[in-house]
Sequence to fold (560 residues):
Amino acid sequence: MTSVTIKTQVHVGQKPGTSGLRKAVKVFQQEHYTENFIQATLNALEDRLSGCTLVIGGDGRYYGKEATDKIIKIAAANGVGKLIVGCNGILSTPAVSTIIRKYKTLGGIVLTASHNPGGPNADFGIKFNCENGGPAPDNVTNKIYENTTTLTSYKIVPDIKVDIDKIQTVTLQIDGKPFTVDVIDSVKDYVQLMKEIFDFPSIKSLLQGSPQRPPFQVLIDSLNGVTGPYVREIFVNELGVNESNVVHVIPLEDFGGLHPDPNLTYAAGLVDAVKNGTYDFGAAFDGDGDRNMILGKKAFFVTPSDSLAVLAAHLEAIPYFQKTGVKGYARSMPTSAAVDQVAKKTGISFFEVPTGWKYFGNLMDAGRLSICGEESFGTGSDHIREKDGIWACLAWLGIVAKLGKSVEDILKDHWVQYGRNFFTRYDYENCDADKSNDLMQDLEAKISQPEFIGTKLTREDKTYVVKKADNYSYTDPIDGSVASKQGLRIFFEDGSRLIYRLSGTGSSGATIRIYIDSYQTDPSTFGYGAERVLKPLVDIALELSKLKEYTGRDAPTVIT
Fold:
């Protein structure tokens, strides 16, 4: 077959965010829109493109198969030698990273809008992962964006037809050169990696029970996202739980109307089932499988920040780390400082990075980081270069099996040893973008005044004294690159923090996120609800930012 060149016009606004380009499906369906972005992405690979191997897969959402077809045709025309494609277009984001690393490919294109809703009237996304398996760093995404601003044509082989719904290898001659599409089992490589990392027999024994101990009952919810086939293979086929213990395990283009975001609001069905049932453990994952929510008996909620800290404190329970050792801990800047306390007591290196998994990748590649996480329900380790929901779930089960304690008891023991960070996040979604920017600019001007330091802010019976305030900037300790304006931070003398950010993961409008973190060492407070401890800080955060005045919102869209 022969490639052809199609003239096109620039589509403005194709700037990738922290996790690729996310827009409404209808935007991607515009003439040449998807083709332009794929061509711009391939152009960014420059002289490394010819004959290379790339991985293609996604979360199964609407428009995914059509986009995969376009990528196959455009990659062929641009001299790519081979594509490894997940069967049915399905590959979780952690699986893409696994396959990139295992087969040493140049990278991969992930078709996902992660935790955003799916369907013809919802969202789609395209993200490029580099050869280390992680999200493209700023220098690559900037190059992709620059290419989108000058693109006048793209190359394509319109006659290629590959059935990606069956496992097969197809080799074609394109412009006289071989081009191979290898449609693979979407699950096999990832499951094999999990079996190398964890003690599956120990976890299976926990879940199956014994004459002396009843089975540890789990309820795993894939929210009709990409993890369904992985959950079925791991938990049903490998670990032997009943089919009734795994729900929503068929990936659907619109996620069955569910919002594929594993938090207390959008995974309310799981929360209710665990709260009212006999389950010892619950877990949910997002659309592309990189986020997780962990629940104990009666829906005891483990915050993502606490989850990271507990896993960090018990890595010896996981065989993988018994072999590799523990090199370092890290968290994103807005995540609570719970893991900081573990680092202090263990003497292990600790890093704070901006939001975006790519910032962890450099530390991992340099051998300085073993486990990391974000408060947005993302946890992972250096086994790949993405956050990994199923990995986090298995890590918790491995620790439960090792310690022989409930999730709640493990967490309470952790607080006694390290103290407790009470933490919450308020999300205000789809706000007016201009007014949201005005809010952030005016707030930054206020906290930048020298007299703001030392200010006493009192609500109810609590007084907080401002110790420091800034707009967070990060210098990468590995390559020296700088990420500036990453979020407004206010530190108080008692260790509490307020953080404000505009999110880059939405497809329309603006999302304002406010993070509230308060560290307590008094054991008498450990049993309090987060709302009780954090309410004075929440009130201060809202009044300082004048959020209602700028947005008109009386309440957040989501509280986590």
